[in-house]
Amino acid sequence: xxxxxxxxxxxxxxxxxxxxxxxxxxxxxxxxxxxxxxxxxxxxxxxxxxxxxxxxxxxxxxxxxxxxxxxxxxxxxxxxxxxxxxxxxxxxxxxxxxxxxxxxxxxxxxxxxxxxxxxxxxxxxxxxxxxxxxxxx
Length: 137
Fold this sequence. Notes:
Blueprint: H1 3-18, E1 20-27, H2 31-41, H3 46-54, H4 59-79, E2 88-97, E3 101-106, E4 112-117, E5 120-128, H5 129-136
Antiparallel strand pairs: 1-5, 2-5, 3-4
């Protein structure tokens, strides 16, 4: 590895230490269904978002709720204190496409129709509101 690459890799590592996030990979539902739930909570305060996810009747909301709890726990671990109401918010939430299982279903006249069983990856980044206000001032 060259020196330039090593320096940029170390900078990325340092930047990642300051950010609290959680990643969920290979969720067996389509990214479109998961993005619908992610759009409901994007930019919300975390405890309000947990309430929205708790009472949503979508299957994906349970998975995002569990992931959000993990992101909150990661933030608490890094900052060595408990999160207070109104302090944390969801900075970014992204849903990316994962691997697709390709299957064949029998069709008339000896044909086969392709079935794609999609999966997705979800990433949640939480941050404090105070840090954003200091940057703006």
